[in-house]
Structures
1.
Amino acid sequence: MANSIYKRVLLKLSGEALAGKDGSGINTEVLHQIANDIKDAHSLGVQIGLVVGGGNIFRGVAASVKGMDRASSDYMGMLATCINSLALQDALENLHLDTRVQTAIEMSEIAEPYIRRKAIRHLEKGRIVIFAAGTGNPYFTTDTAAALRAMEINAEVIIKATKVDGIYDKDPAKFSDAKKYDEITYIEVLNKGLQVMDSTAISLCMDNRLPIITFNLTQKGNIARVIKGDTIGTIVRS
Ligand code: GTP
């Protein structure tokens, strides 16, 4: 049944999402639940590019705060995204989905190098393309990698999976009167310092008018709901 309102999207998952309640590493049960959700969304007829973070394995910024060289720790974080990408590829292929992993840092024994035109070709053939190793550069987050790849593959929207059901004016875990936005502008997100994505990623989306939808991944079926156009979560646009 094809009732996606989008032709092509970029799905951004945090590395922590793969850890589930374990807090770190990869929880295979959670991994398979996410893969099933992606399969349901894909069956709606949408082309999916995927970027996953690496924070469940290694957080570059946190290590640099503790004295590690920032570039070295960021490279370690990029390698962590490759591990998560291979795990997701395996879980998706277990569900008989066609996938390709492309890495921004060449490791051709393990995966294809990132080649934009090839990625688009894979998407056109219905393959889920997982973009690994961030942008290949230190000092850039995987959110920025997601924004960049979304633009490069002409995705219509970034779908950012989180642990909360949208963007709030303050932390809903700490404040019972926190107010959820259904819609918010890029500039408001930047001015209010809301933790949606880092400012580089938000600015890139703003300059190129790429909408971002944030939603709660922990609720089963939510990726498909977003793809069908259900108004869950928060949309960021101009
Ligand atoms: P089409 O020919 O367009 O249908 O794409 P394809 O990906 O099926 O063809 P290709 O011959 O490029 O790839 C065949 C398999 O080899 C796929 O599973 C690719 O992911 C994999 N592959 C292609 N290039 C590389 C590479 O540089 N490194 C690794 N490790 N695998 C690669």
Note: The chain has one domain: 8-236.
2.
Amino acid sequence: MSLLIKNGRVITATDDYFADVFVDGGTVKQIGKDLAVKAETVLDATGKLVIPGGIDPHTHMDMPFGGTFSSDDFDTGTVAAAFGGTTTIIDYAIQTRGKSALEGLDAWHKKAEGKAAIDYAFHMILTDMPEERISEMRRLADDGVTSYKMFMAYPGVLYADDGTLYRAFRQAGADGSRVCLHAENGIVIDEIIKGAVQDKKLAPIWHARTRPTRMEAESVHRAIAIAELAGASLYIVHLSSADGLEQIKLGRMRGVDVHAETCPQYLFLDESAYLSEGNGGFEGAKWVMSPPLREKGNQDALWQGLRLHHVHSVATDHCPFFFNGTWKPGDPSPERPGKELGRAGFNKIPNGAPGVENRMALMYQGGVVEGRLSLNRFVEVTSTFAAKIFGLFPRKGTIAVGSDADIVVFDPNRTETISVNNPRTHRMRVDYSAFEGFTVKGYPDTVISRGRIVVDKGSQQAKGGGQFIRRARAGELLR
Ligand code: URP
Ligand code: ZN
Ligand code: ZN
């Protein structure tokens, strides 16, 4: 299908100009003023921004976690992502402890294949990596999975000890793969949690009080030191605090190859959410995620980090769980259990929150409208940087001749109030919004994935069609 986007203002991470964009066969074929080409579909983008489709490099669709599964799968989650202006996700596949990572990858391919509305790639969560299976890491990279996630949190579940980190970091460094890291000292945190539970401190606020920012900073510091020795390229996911950010700056000043990602929840929300009234004191469970929401002062530090290039990317860590699940123990699973699993104590609340649909609009509002980020920087942190660091560039993350036509026609004047009750802002399969009541100016009007219009003016135009993207290794370009 051919498509001509006329008269828009084209913004990339580096450019800003008025032009027409001609798309054919899924890629951008021409960019220029008043293009004299015939196209099957013509979109008038007068007064609109024409930006690269968003790339969300941190999602958890259909993820087994906290005694249940995240409530969006690759169908509902990617449709929601598209409505919000995201055209590629990098989801986290999981290697089960003691089993092959390649089996884990197969399982995630099965979850996504034929369902996704937009393109997707995988990172691989490594839970263990004994010497005899370490060659699997190179096989993953050969199969286009060129990054891993490892956890310093969640002992007994996803946690990897320092020896495992070092072994995997060395292999990743040798293979040209990158390591994403959940940096929280789970061993110490578990001790703090035990004390809180003994003292009957069970309300959602204790989720935040038992996970201090120092334990994020300590893990960021330790991971950087291990990566420095091992020669690995490190990417700290969901950075939440000024304390943690200080360690990123120190590591980078020392010349370590470390980058940082934050998420809208840490830029827009704070720990007072855990004290929200309602639902018998359980309302705050909606925001139980790890790391937790922090004291408000951390928001400014993270925004400044984005502005000054100490923080490089904004992902969502989309991991939704129903709030009012109808599931009861023993039910043959009519619906996935959700936050109610933790009614008796914060430490049993499934960790995670929804957001894949809200990221682009929130970042445009908080960044561009409120004057914290330039338009170019907005594009960079929501798309281009992730494409570059995770081996998707230049197919993804920019608008250029030869690139995939993953394009968003973004209306800078459209105002929406984000709400679970507003179908224009909430397609995610979850019964609440983490950003309920936030008003944003600027919203995606038309969302195009490899030349297919997936969403136009609030209505879904295509189902499925998303493809698995094999990513390049560090330093290589994706053809
Ligand atoms: O609470 C969170 N973040 N849940 C998803 C898993 C993770 O740690 O990223
Ligand atoms: Zn994590
Ligand atoms: Zn995550």
Note: Residues 182, 237-238 surround zinc ion (ligand 2) (CB under 6 Å).
